[in-house]
Amino acid sequence: MEVDKGKGEAEETRKVAEADRDTVTLKSSDGKLFEVSKEAAARLSTVLAGMIAGGSIDDNGTDLKQIGSEALENVVDYCNKHANSIPSAALISSSISFNTAPFKEPEEWERKFVDRLSHDALFDLVEAANFLGMERLLDVTCHKISEMMKGKSPDQIREVFNIKNDYTKEELEEIRQELAWAFYDD
Amino acid sequence: METKKRKPATLTGDWAALPDDALLAIFGGLGHADIFLGAELTCASWRRVAVREPTLWRRIDLRSSDGSRARSNPSPRAWRAMARAAVGRSAGKCESYAGSVDADFLAYLAASPPLLRSLHVTSFFHLPIKESAADMEIPYLPMLEHLMLSHEARRFYLYGPMGSMLRMKLERMVKDMYIYASLEERTTIYRRLNPRGRLSMHAQT
What we know:
The complex is a heterodimer of chains A (about 190) and B (about 200). Chain A is mainly α and about 190 residues long. Chain A has helices at about 1-20, 40-45, 45-55, 70-85, 90, 110-115, 120-130, 135-150, 155-160, 170-180, and strands at about 25, 35, 60-65. Residues about 90-100 and about 180-185 of chain A have low confidence and may be disordered. Chain B is about 35% helix and about 10% strand. Chain B has helices at about 20-30, 30-35, 45-50, 75-90, 105-110, 150-160, 165-175; strands at about 60, 95-100, 120, 145-150, 185-190. Chain A: This is SKP1-like protein. Chain A: Part of a SCF (SKP1-cullin-F-box) protein ligase complex.
């Protein structure tokens, strides 16, 4: 019993020490370590929030096997920048508009943050944000991708993102016809 | 444990295989014409997501977008078809529509589940004058809170030869109506007390 009690206390102390740390360490698929603000990580990522609350954070680096170091660096960079930024009216306002989605416009720094990314880095960051349940980062990266697609023809979109056209010419024509002729016969 | 792992096969940078949630966020940032004429024709996996998800079509924005010089301008018939297809894809969840209308389309909207709260008319599908908006049957849309006329629709309403007839019809339909002109004099907004007695108005700049 005595031993158990001592062990329990040590465990308790370790847990307190862990709780006192205001950063968590994340480890990328290729083994690189990154420190991130615990508060920001918990606020911005549902997955990290769950891991922090559930005590599955490892002091020596919590394994995120699905995320490469470049993408994880961007995630951590985003979280830490977010920790230092004051939410502006743009983040809070959500008045009904005639636009399609109630999307909150990216802040200036968020815009700059995604603008500097290569296409590959942008893609990896979208996947990482999706994996970590980071709604805001997903919105910001996807907003950038929307901007890259606006007003473009299917051919141009395929070229920008290097997407293979898996439609046959006939299928594509069929879809077009379906759309234009479905309800009206001239 | 410490062996370095290569990137899993899922992260190959295949844009056609983006997660559904990401694609929805991307499509959500586009006007619906951009989805019909661009995104969904890009590849089959993107189209599957665009067609299948009703929430993407809850607030339909089919105002013609500029900056689409890369594509040929769709005919009025194609716009009509897009408008109907968009409402169809909303699977009865359409809350707002912005774009061109005609009598058939309004009837189609009215026959859909009555969730429509906001209607923004930009033009009347370039109808010949004898079928113009003045003769248009305007159905009752029970949940409608906001009706806006802009662009050609506003010009027609204010200055068109048949505009006064349309005005009379709308005045009967809209309880508390007046004209709001934006700073640029581009838009006109009518508003009325909605059934719950809350007065609200949306201005567009």
